[in-house]
Design a protein that fits this description.
alpha/beta; GMP Synthetase, Chain A, domain 3; eleven-stranded mixed sheet; four-stranded mixed sheet; 22% strand
Length: 505
C-alpha cells in the first residue's frame, strides 16, 4: 500500500506555520463575517437582518441564544426533513441523530456539506499536531481504526439521510482516505454492538493499524478483549496514535497505560461535537485543547453563573478569561447561530485559546443548591478510586430527596467497578468523594456542614457490565452513546436506579 506520509508531513509544516502566525481575534471576526454573508439569504438570515450586521456586538444584539428546542420549533420541524435554505443555504443532505432533548426524544441536527468539509480539515489537523511532536511518525503507513457507531443511515425522504455522525462521516469519506480506513464497510454497517466488537477484534489483529480513535470506555473494552486474544502481547505493534474524546480521559488513563506501554503510541484528545469540530490538543496530555478558530465556527462563551438569565454576558475569544466556567455557544456552517450546545469549558490559555471540558450544562448537580459541575464530580470519583485501589468502569449520580418535610436528602452514586469492594473500601470511597467535593466547592461545603443541607453521599457499587446491560436495554450500547453521568430529575433518576439495579438486570 502506498504510504503518503511524506505528503502529510509537507502539509503539516505549512499548517503549523499558519497556526503559529494566527491572530485569534482577527480570525474569529473573519469567521463570523463569512457565516453571516453565506446565510444572509436564508430564512433565519432574513429574520435577523444578517445583511445589516457588521460587528460582533450587532450580532449579539440581533441574534439571541437559542437551544435545540428553539431551532426545532421555529425553523426545522415544519419543513422536516428538507431544511433547504432554512438556516443554511442549499440542501442539507444529512441529519445527525443524537439523544439529549429535555423531552427525551432524539435530536435531528443539520449536517451540511460545508460542515463535512470542515470536519475533514479538522481530522487532518489531528495528524498535524501529532507530527509537531513526533516528526518521525508515519501515520499513513497503516490504517486508521475508527471505533464508532453503525454507519447504517436511515432514508428520511426528500433526499435526506439520518444517523450517527460517525456513520455520516464514513459515508462522506474522501476517496483518497478509504484505502487507509478500518473497518471495512460490511462491519461498519453492523448495528449489533456486541457482534460488531467481536468481529472487529478478530479482523483488526490481521490488519496493520497505525492510528485508532474512539471514546475511552469503548477503547478500553476493545484493548481488554484484544489482550485476551493475544495472551497479553501487543495487539497493534505499529500503533502510533490513539485519539480519544467524548468522555473524560481521567477515569481511563491509568487503565490504558499497560496497553499503550507495549507500543510507541501517543495519545491526543479531541473535542468533536455534533454541531462541529471544536478543539484539538496541540500540547501534552491534560494541557488543554486548542480551539480551531478558522474552520467554520464562531465561538461565544457565557459564564455558567449567568446561564439562564435574561441577558447573559456573551464573551468571545477577544475578551474571554481563564479559570472561569463557561457554557459554550456556537454559530457554525451547519446553520446554527448562537446555539447552546450544552457543554461547559474552562480556558487555560488565551493566545492561542486552549480549553478544558468541564462537563455538561445538564451535568450540573444542584438538587440542594450545591452547584457541582461535571469536572468536580469526576475529580472526586477519580480520587476515591486512587485512595481505595478500586478500578472504576463508569458511574452515575443523582439526588435522593428526603421522605419527610424536615428530612435531609443526599447524593446517590452508582459506581461500576471491576472487582467487588470490601466494607473498608466502600466506606473510604464515600468519605473520599465527600472530602474532595468539600474542598473543591464552597456551596457543597456549606450544605454539608453538620449535615444541615445534605447528608453524606451514598455509594452503591455495581458489578461489571451493569451499565452495558442497561444501555443495551435502551438501544444505546456502543459507538457514541455514553452513560449519563448526572441526572437532576429525582423521579427519573429513581426509575433509572431501579432499572440498572434490578435483580438479573
Amino acid at each position: 500500500m502506498f504510504d503518503p506520509s511524506p505528503l502529510l508531513k509537507l502539509h503539516a509544516r505549512r499548517r503549523l506555520a499558519l497556526l503559529a502566525a494566527q491572530d485569534p481575534v482577527a480570525t474569529q471576526e473573519a469567521q463570523l463575517r463569512s457565516l453571516l454573508r453565506k446565510a444572509a439569504g436564508t430564512r433565519f438570515g432574513r429574520d435577523h437582518g444578517f445583511d445589516r450586521i457588521s460587528t460582533i456586538a450587532e450580532f449579539q444584539a440581533r441574534v439571541p441564544i437559542r437551544s435545540y428546542e428553539d431551532f426545532w420549533r421555529d425553523y426545522w420541524s415544519g419543513p422536516f426533513p428538507d431544511l433547504t435554505d432554512q438556516t443554511w443555504p442549499g440542501k442539507t443532505p444529512y441529519l445527525g441523530v443524537s439523544s439529549g432533548t429535555t423531552t427525551g426524544a432524539n435530536k435531528y441536527l443539520p449536517i451540511t456539506n460545508d460542515m463535512m468539509r470542515s470536519n475533514k480539515r479538522a481530522a487532518i489537523d489531528i495528524a498535524v499536531h501529532h507530527l509537531a511532536h513526533h516528526p518521525e511518525s508515519r501515520l499513513l503507513r497503516g490504517k486508521t481504526f475508527m471505533l464508532g457507531g453503525s454507519t447504517a443511515l436511515r432514508d428520511q425522504g426528500q433526499g435526506v439521510l439520518s444517523g450517527d455522525l460517525s456513520g455520516i462521516a464514513v459515508k462522506d469519506q474522501s476517496r483518497w482516505m478509504r484505502p487507509f480506513s478500518f473497518p471495512p464497510p460490511d462491519l461498519a454497517l453492523l448495528e449489533d454492538w456486541e457482534e460488531k466488537l467481536e468481529r472487529l477484534t478478530h479482523l483488526s489483529l490481521k490488519t496493520r493499524i497505525s492510528m485508532i480513535s474512539g471514546t475511552p470506555p469503548w477503547l478500553l473494552i476493545l484493548f481488554q478483549r484484544l489482550h485476551e486474544m493475544t495472551d497479553g502481547a501487543a495487539p497493534y505493534p505499529d500503533l502510533e496514535l490513539l485519539v480519544h474524546g467524548g468522555v473524560a480521559w481521567d477515569l481511563y488513563r491509568d487503565r490504558m497505560k499497560p496497553f499503550l506501554a507495549q507500543t510507541r503510541a501517543a495519545t491526543r484528545e479531541v473535542y468533536p461535537a455534533s454541531e462541529g469540530f471544536i478543539a484539538i490538543a496541540d500540547r501534552g496530555d491534560a494541557e488543554g485543547m486548542r480551539l480551531i478558530l478558522d474552520n467554520g465556527i464562531f465561538f461565544e462563551f457565557v459564564p455558567l453563573s449567568e446561564l439562564g438569565s435574561k441577558n447573559p454576558t456573551r464573551h468571545w475569544v477577544g475578551n474571554v478569561q481563564t479559570d472561569i466556567d463557561y457554557a459554550i455557544i456556537l454559530s457554525c456552517n451547519s446553520g446554527m447561530f448562537a446555539y447552546q450546545i450544552g457543554d461547559t469549558v474552562r480556558f487555560v490559555d488565551r493566545s492561542p485559546p486552549r480549553l478544558l471540558i468541564t462537563g455538561r450544562t445538564s451535568y450540573m448537580l444542584s438538587a440542594f443548591g450545591e452547584h457541582l459541575i461535571g469536572s468536580e464530580l469526576d475529580s472526586a470519583v477519580n480520587r476515591a478510586a486512587e485512595v481505595t485501589g478500586l478500578s472504576v468502569n463508569d458511574y452515575m449520580v443523582g439526588a435522593e430527596l428526603p421522605d419527610s418535610p424536615r428530612g435531609v436528602g443526599h447524593h446517590l452514586y452508582l459506581v461500576e467497578t471491576t472487582g467487588a469492594p470490601d466494607d473498608g473500601q466502600a466506606r473510604r470511597f464515600a468519605d473520599c468523594v465527600d472530602a474532595v467535593l468539600r474542598d473543591m466547592n464552597e456551596d457543597y461545603l456549606a450544605h454539608r456542614i453538620n449535615d444541615t443541607g445534605m447528608n453524606p453521599p451514598v455509594i452503591r457499587f455495581l458489578p461489571p457490565k451493569s451499565f452495558d446491560r442497561w444501555m443495551a436495554a435502551q438501544g444505546k450500547l456502543g459507538g457514541q452513546h455514553k452513560v449519563p453521568r448526572v441526572t437532576n430529575d429525582a423521579a427519573k433518576f429513581a426509575t433509572m436506579v431501579a432499572e440498572i439495579c434490578k435483580p438479573g438486570g
